[in-house]
Amino acid sequence: MLKKITTICCLAFTGICAAQLGGESTYQFLNLIASPRQAALGGKVITNFDYDVTGGLFNPATINPEMDNQLALNYSSYLGGISYGSAAYAYTWDRHLQTFHFGMTYINYGSFDGYDLNGVSTGTFTGNEAALSVGYAYQIPFTDFYLGANLKMITSKLEQYNSIGIAADFGAIYINERLDFHAAITVRNLGTQILTYADLNEKLPLEVNLGLSQTLENMPLRWHLTFENLQQWPIGFSNPSRATTDLDGNQTQEKVGFFNEVLRHTIIGAELFPERGFNIRMAYNFRRAEELRILEQRNFSGLSFGLGIKLNKMRFSYTHARYSGASNANFFGIQIDLRK
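Given the sequence above, the corresponding structure tokens read:
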């Protein structure tokens, strides 16, 4: 019973977060973290242009021949007993290095106890959602710019209600090989519902992100700076628990200033030994830290850290992400090189 209550609370919290980002939208799982590496770098990184085939799920412009015949499987036991994961595979088609990307994302909300209006049990029900994607990237001739797109088919089943949708992601990345500097932008989840839950058409969770990253010249460390949810300003909200009361009993709500608004769009991260067989990753997500911080308690919300290990043709990744004192999340992933 406790598991059911916790799960319902987590789903309610997800809805609240959606409202904070500009209104109601469906298929919120599309913006969940795709892999342990992404989780360790703050959850929204879009500038990795390398072997990491899962990166194509969040920024299709990063699809490249180095991903050829790479298969990735990722899993997370999320908050409240929710489980979700992703899979990705890329294949380079011909000598012109045309690489196609295929991906899947799913989420299982678990089992719930159902009751009618009179409180009579109606049995249990489940909820799950999934998205299948195909992507492709293209280098603009004689430039350092790459463009990419993903097309996604989305299915959702929540109790007796079903929905089908279609969406597209668009991305661009600039790569300066001399400076080892990357700059990228993505516009994700442009689409619509084809079949609605109950004849009510809902918006999809549009997300615009901007990312910068660079490997330091004399140190095997790559820094990442990501600005998330740029489509929403302001993104901060006043937390009622932080209101102050004067001697006359008058309450003053928390004010979120301009600098704090900028910080809540910001994620900073770093990866040590990014091109070697052993990697250490860490990041800080300012918005997650502010929204989940408990007053007068130190629970390190917003922090994430992980590592990656390569053994022969397999790469193993693990990340621990801090959310709150009540619950945190662990991410597991494996990438297999299927080339002979």
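The radius of gyration is 21 Å. Try to locate this feature in the token string yourself.
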